[in-house]
Amino acid sequence: MTTRTDRMQQMDMSTLTDIAAIERLKYRYLRCLDTKSWDGFAACFADDATADYNGLVFDDPDSVVDYMRTNMGEGVLTLHQAHHPEIDLDPEDRDRATGTWYLQDRVIVDAYRFALEGGAFYTDTYVRTADGWRIRHTGYRRTFELKQNLDDPAGIRVYGPGRPPGR
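Predicted structure:
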């Protein structure tokens, strides 16, 4: 069985540098989303970027940023953590890469007395630009969602692959 350490030892310094830069990009994307740093968030995307968040689809980066700015603005508390990255550089084109990340997120909207906690797997593609690595496509598929009315803790609802919302 090949471990992460074994794979890392087999990689050259250029590959490791690119992987580290892509990891920093994803972490910056999440930090800027949670801190509502919309210019920084927008700077994470390539000019032709697309997104698909569990069926919520965007055809350009401006649409993604506008949606997040409108729906994740003041009064919406968020925590997005991505970990366990699996990043692969394209062996045919070293200016392209793919990544899979495990997402754990939490959204709290006190005005609506609503909380959501979830898990998902991000599947991303990246491209090297003149300004460094950027996200060309990002998106996730949920593994679960836990929704809660903050005034009714006993009314928690859990949704997953075997139990979609509404059932």
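Summary: The chain has four helices and seven strands.
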